[in-house]
Design a protein that fits this description.
alpha+beta; single chain; four-stranded antiparallel beta sheet; 22% strand; Alpha-Beta Plaits; rod-shaped; 5 helices
Length: 214
């Protein structure tokens, strides 16, 4: 209780000091102003009263204007906040949808490529197509870091060299690769003619595939 009383006492002291600074001791300044006012002629008093009223009205009008300006600014800020929130929700929904599609794509690639071993696979296709497979090698080039697939899978390039291949058998071989259901695509094809032989060719093929790492 003593602390509360002390605080109240200090507040009263400060209030009194402020009042004395503005109105003077025992309201001397207020009495002086009132006496001076009543000593004025009637017309001057009316002018002073009109000026005071105009000042009060002006201050009230200014206060109301500032108030409505602040309310309007606050309303605009709230509208912007709601619009930003709705846009964020929309972007989040789109992100969730794209993430689900991405996961579905990775899952499909994983299911189609988990069992493939590239060298035995192409050797088997070559035997089935009765094509002489001269050499085969695979490598994993660096994927673009900006490609989101780079975090979940690796691109595989398979280089095949075929010798003395006829065009019909080559076409069947290429179709078998594309239709193998392992997401394999012919990325580059180079056909070289054999001197003195118009029916058979040497062929270099670059096949692109994928391996899921996660």
């Amino acid at each position: 209780m003593s602390l509360v009383s002390d605080i109240k006492g200090r507040i009263e002291t400060y209030t009194r000091l402020v009042g004395e600074k503005i109105l003077g001791v025992n309201n001397e300044r207020l009495d002086f102003v009132m006496d001076s006012f009543y000593k004025l002629d009637h017309s001057y008093r009316n002018a002073v009263l009109a000026g005071i009223v105009s000042l009060v009205v002006g201050l009230v009008t200014l206060s109301v204007f500032i108030y409505y300006m602040q309310v309007s600014s606050l309303r605009n800020e709230l509208n912007d906040s709601f619009n930003a929130l709705n846009e964020l929700k929309s972007l989040k929904a789109e992100e969730s949808l794209e993430s689900a599609r991405f996961d579905h794509l990775v899952g499909r690639v994983k299911s189609k490529t988990r069992s493939i071993n590239f060298k035995p696979f192409f050797e088997r296709l070559a035997r089935q197509a009765k094509i002489p497979l001269k050499s085969i090698s695979d490598r994993q080039p660096e994927m673009d870091a900006n490609n989101p697939l780079a975090e979940r899978m690796k691109e595989v390039h398979v280089d095949l060299r075929l010798s003395k291949v006829s065009v019909p058998r080559l076409l069947n071989f290429l179709v078998d690769i594309e239709k193998s259901n392992h997401y394999l695509r012919i990325q580059n094809l180079k056909i070289t003619g054999i001197y003195g032989n118009k029916l058979f060719f040497d062929v270099d093929i670059l096949v692109r595939g994928y391996k899921v790492t996660q």
